[in-house]
Amino acid sequence: MHKSPNDPKQYRYLTLANELKVLLVHDAEAPRSAAALSVKVGHFDDPNDREGMAHFLEHMLFLGTEKYPRVGEFQTFINQNGGSNNAWTGTENTTFFFEVSPHAFCEGLDRFGQFFTAPLFNEEAVDKERNAVDSEYKLKLKDDVRRLYQVHKETINQAHPFSKFSVGDLTTLADRQRSVRDELIEFYRSHYSANLMGLVLLGPQSLDEQQAFAETFFRDIANHGEAKPEITAPLVTDAENGRMITIEPIKEVRKLTLSFSLPAVDSYYREKPLSYIANLLGNEGSGSLMSVLKGQGLINTLAAGGGVSGSNFREFTISLNLTPAGMDKIDDIVAAVFRYINIIRQKGLDEWRYEEKKAVLEMAFRYQEKSRPLDTVSYLVMNLLHYAPEDLIYGDYMMSGYNEALITGLLDQLVPDNMRLVLIAQGQDYDQVANWYHTPYKVVPFSNEQLAQWQQPGHDDALKLPEPNPFLCEKFEPHALADDADQPPQLLQDLPGFRLWFKQEHEFRVPKGVVYVAIDSPHAVSSPRNIVKTRLCVEMLLDAINEAAYPAEIAGMSYNLYAHQGGVTLQLSGFSEKQPLLLQLLLDQFANRQFNLERFNNIKAQMLRSWRNAAQDKPISQLFNELTGLLQPNNPPYPVLLEALESIEVDELPAFVEAMFAELHIDTFIYGNWLKEDALALAEILKDAFRVTDQLYGESQRPLVHLGKSGTLRHEVRCSHADSALLMYYQSRATTPRKIAIYTLANHLMSTTFFHELRTRQQLGYMVGTANLPLNRHPGLILYIQSPVAAPTQLLDAMDEFTNAFSLVLLELNDAQWQASKQGLIAQISEPDTNLRARAQRFWVSIGNKDTDFNQRQKVVEALEALSRADMVKFIVDIIKPRTANRIVMHCQGQAHKDLEPLQIGSEIESVNEFQSKAY
Description:
Number of strands: 26
Strand content: 15-25%
Largest sheet: 8 strands, mixed
Low-confidence stretches: none
Mean pLDDT: 95
């Protein structure tokens, strides 16, 4: 098995007697053990009269087995042992996965293996869980992704299984002459066969021990011995090709997608011919298709190479987000795409281009960094079912050789006759409405004039193929370690208005680095209007730099500039050798900033559209956004941002930027494969660029509203959605490690019980949970539900009933369960950083939180160790119980419940401005 020279893990591939494929991964340093099992069964396999059956089955397997019959027992076990679990149902695969503390892996696998050998399909659970599936379906009724996906399903060949409704609801899963439970069991027994499965185990356990686990817990999965039937119907026939499909979205979107139907390309994973084509079509550098169309004011973004895929098909898509001007030039934009495809055919087939991409992937493979055990098993289990055993680790990265005939053969199918054109935009003509999601759409054949224009698209001298990449790195050996490399980050410079933190990375030993530059300016955040101007300037700079910096992204570097509560932060990451070049490019662009009116208008329009679209987000997302905006005056919610943005003009920005940079404070952190002199040199570049002399400005204030003895406060958000939602927020006044420990443990202890009680048992909705939400270092606890069946009044009653009873739940835990829950959380918090980027982020958060000893995590763990069950019961009784709580209740009353009694609990927050006057 080909693996990276930087990968210390050991691997073993085997096939059990029942033909189950197994990959074992020994990782001596894994903080948790993880497992994933995937079966080649998905919604394509649903019976025609039982759409959603595969998805329903995925839900049911979690709800009790012969050996472990109690509903919710698996999640409780996982939670108590510091883990997590989930599953998903795709078109042709269903995948289950979990991770857990290593000491609990054996028992976890025993429980997990039972899903596939002895599930109970408890009758009461069947009745309840189809409600959960129905809630999941209703949750997405106003989700444009699902709405558009359904039109996709209705406009391809209806003989292909892709056309089936994948989620299921109360009608497709209803009892008929036979109960759905009987059909579910029959579906399970006929489809869940060991020869169609792959299993990955990963942990610090030895390969021999893991093999024993696999053989013990998974050998009894039945093997029916039948091969998966091949899909013979094509995804698209001539009757569906050559069509323009217009779709009405809920959100304000203007998206044009050219979709080409190709045969399956999975067997070419070693050569990756479509990646070669997508790299050229999706290039964003000078002279690229995106650059030219964007320069003409027709598009904002372009992406190539997406599309759905399956065992007998592969879509290849080119998607463009249009400007209003682009809406009037759709045929011309499509012609430009075909012009560029012709340039690739005529001049773009070069082995050096393939080798350049191959070199980038080889470096990414060689210096790949660890991912979380759960993420690792999740992607490896898919590889297990699609790649040859020797390529399981390498398959995603390998480019085995330039095959021009293969590339040409695929390019020859990127022609107008083999294209479907999809326009997603409001206000078009429609004559059909899609099933399930009620999406208006229309399908018309291409006209002869369109086909003639696209088949002979002409030539454009502005379009150019990319040049060789100047950002490709050549020095890959990490620097020798300095004597103090194992020490925490050091403050190298503490000057008026400028601080420099530095640490050479000493453990991961990859030639990568991270640079953070936080630019605080009180002027940038002094009002909502200034906050919006800051965000506009950020977007304009990102837009201006994109073309020149794109080759750096291709070469394994990334950059980001984002607004925060004090100003803006610049972040660079990836291979360190050429990062100074990228930084200089960004700073030069900043120094030569121009506020072009046309680009300003486009970017302002994009931001207006994005913030308006937020009003169509699911209710629970709107409640979270409104809550943080309510409590953090420097982080306003979308409606406030919108109001400020609408009247801002381009000529305000130059003076604003000058004023913003007249008073600033910079915190810089340089971490990774750098020497101290590198960090000092980068600091000088930054100080010159931002004219840092002897400023006396400190950091911007980041105010937070402190609830104090507020009692229950309520705040309603208007949402145009059928579902209601309610969110309950509790805040700690103190920021001590003990308070962080208490709030974090409360969330950890509540999460599975809350989910089981309010979702699984009471069936109040699909989105049900608890969350840990620290704001400006103050710990916070959240409980939330979005519900198609209950109004906010009923949701509040259910939550209050839960919090009133939760102290009794704690008292009923035996000592072993209490300790296991606590140790599970401690294991999560203490988990070593997975890779350089994760550690950089942790150090950076510590710097922002003034944890300059970098030991906050350890202090929280010590506080957790000291917490007794009596402490937690006292916290629930004193802080969380409704009678004594100081809390905010955010809610929205869904259209399905508009005639029901409105929520009247506590005191209403009538004036946001007055409420925020308490912030400090």
